[in-house]
Design a protein that fits this description.
156 residues; mainly beta; Nuclear Transport Factor 2, Chain: A; eight-stranded mixed β-sheet
Length: 156
Amino acid sequence: MGNEKIVHAAASAASTAPSEDVITFRRTAPPEWLLALWKEIDDKTFGEGFNCFREDAIWNLGVGDWHGREAIIKNVRAFIDTGFTALHVVDEYWDGGALKVFRGSVTMTPDDGSKPVVRPVMTHFLYMDEADHTKVRHWYGSVDPLSFTAGPASLT
């Protein structure tokens, strides 16, 4: 199976798991649905790639607390439209079935050429629909440095 690796981890998250669970993670290539989401954001098209979210999904990204697929699209679009182009790269992806974890980076190129290009690191935990592990139920993401109220802090 090539570069595939398997790890076992004990996970406990008060809001998503009532007790300690043991989860087996398999390191794999990122799935097409995840790459499609990043492509929608990078291309600023905001279409079918967002179908990886359940209608009632929650995305906590930095200070963002977005409830429902439509609110997620609206808020991601509002952030991306603050004067830069993004290019997301997934460097490492771990699949634990109902829990997915990945890290990568995003190159943020400002529309204003006098401002520097930045490449913050991103880390994400995706809690999936119990019946369909291709649909995100709750996404916790961290990308630094960012501020969702004033745009990317390092681009201002």
